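Thread: TTF-type domain-containing protein, structure

OP (GT): Posting the sequence first so everyone is looking at the same thing. Length is 685 residues per the record. Can we get the structure tokens written out before standup tomorrow? I want them in the notebook alongside the other entries.
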Amino acid sequence: MSQKRSVADFFSPSSKRAKQKAVSPELFASTAEDSETLQEQENAQCFVSIPLEETVRSIASDDACPSSSGHMDRECDDLSASCAARHQPDSATEFTASDVDVDHAGQLDISKFKTEQPTQPILNPFPSMKYGKLSRSFNSNWYRLFPWLEYSAQADAAFCLPCRMFSTGDNEKSAFVNGGYSNWKNALERDGGFRKHENSLVHKTCQASWVSFTQMKAGGQSRSVATHLSDAYSREVQENRLYIARVADILRFTAVQGISQRGHDESARSENKGNFVELLNLFAKYDDIIGKKLNGGAANAKYVHHSIQDQILEILSHITLTSIKEEMKSSQCFALIVDETKDLSKTEQLSVVVRYYLNGAVFERFLGFRNAEQLDAKSLLSYVKETLNRCGIDSQLCIAQTYDGASVMNGTSRGVQALFRQEVPQAVYVHCMNHRLNLVIVDVCKAIKPSAFGTVWEQTCTISEENGVPKREKQRTKRLPLHLEQFVLSEGRPVEEESPDSKETFRVKVFLPVLDHLIVELTRRFAENNDVLCGVSALHPQSENFMDVSLLKPFAEHYACDINSVEVECKLVIKLLQRIEAERKCKIETFLQLVTVLEEYKLAFHELHKLSVIAVTIPASSSSCERTFSCLRRLKTYLRSKMTNNRLSDLAVLAVERSLANKIDLQRVVDMFDAAHNNRRIRLH
């Protein structure tokens, strides 16, 4: 009695002899004969000089030749009649469903690569399924009728190898590709099951691709029509990708340079079609591919419409913001800088900038403009959070926030900074130092008493005399009120009488009052966050209080650092810096130099490294937002005042962050453009 074996043994190289015994020679002979006939039919259908799609459609309409079709129908009827009786292979070695190692069969179940042949195991018996009172199961003779067929013992289902390996997406939902076909009752129906799938246009296309791929891998010299068409398709895709990449490159160039793209009249009759179209025409003069697409292509497939420009600009801006997000992932924290202004169309624009430390440098990156429909604190905060979320930035990593002196921003209870600190407590508010200093100067100037009236009067008299204007010398003396006549008036020195020494007069009347008001205003306006900012100054190498633990303590407590570790690290860092300065013969004088040194020893000085990174991240002013406002004035001019806010923000991101924009891989832009638009008239994959 023969020993039962598993499917794993059946597929092992050592069981080659058993495999030959398991399948009858007649079955192999008929399979080879049918495969040879099928190959001749495929060659006859593939080597005609017409497009592949027309070839496949003709095959689908003709189905098969009448003689072969009748022969196939008779064989299908015979197999359908014998299906219930089970196929008994002429073999001394038999396989039962219980012998299948399901886990191992899941690894070897069906083909995994294009170079493999269909997996066609022979089980005795195959698992059966109930259809009313009858039982049906897969029949191994079907391999001979349908060479593309493969069977999964694990799923008890049939699959199509060509469609699984060469499907272009139209056939992904087919049971022969996903899940498997297991309706054995209707498997051999003329208008369903295997026959319907085999005669489908999608299957014939995949079958032709499979034959061409097999011929190419075999090293044959002959190339099928499908191969030539595949090469032509690849060339077309490459040309299309090159064209879209050039379009994106021109848009990037105009955006980075801050120049307009569109023209007033972009028709063929116009002498000036705008910078974008004119640059594309310039490229077409020196690039045959661009010229062919632009001048010889379809009118609706040139991709120069303003909507296409908006989409590509959005992709370029998205990639730039993604680069910023990736940089911030490597940073431990960031600071938020926000300011607001009106553009040319009187629209309130909110500028959002983030500041962070990375690899020995501090970066301030622009995240875009946001149209501020409402100017209350809650609305402004929602706009800021929306911008951060759109860029994928976690607001909980914010350690500081900087705004101008507007009351809606710096209000202690209902301002934006107060509302933001309710959600992110460690985000200390820093009023822009430049705005503070400007307010100090304004207040001091208001306190100075005007004293130049006499000088102005003298100049007026001089001009009047030169031009012959008579000087009024006599003036009617007003009569003193009666109640003043009751008092005795004595002569004395006028209060406004100047001292003989002019320098002393200036010092007393101008210099000293200005200094008094200046000190008062500086003390009043720069006293906020004093404890935290003093801790920052204690980390500056040139500060008198460098590494003063008493000043660092409030700073460390605010950012949840271990005070004991900070005290120990301060003592050791001073000695470390002295040794490094002696060895490297350079003096550490700036924040960045200190952070760079601590970066090398951050495992030993973890707390001080964290505090130093926070110190260099805290912004001193909102000047970066002011620079974005300068860019806004260049972009939104009188002739571009109707620009949408999304396009404005995308252009501003590319113009401000030009260093990142110039590094964008244009092939990535083409891929994203292709993924976002599946129904394009231009093939990009």
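GT: Both are above now. Quick notes for whoever picks this up: The first helix runs from residue 7 to 11. The CA atoms of residues 83 and 139 lie 7 Å apart.
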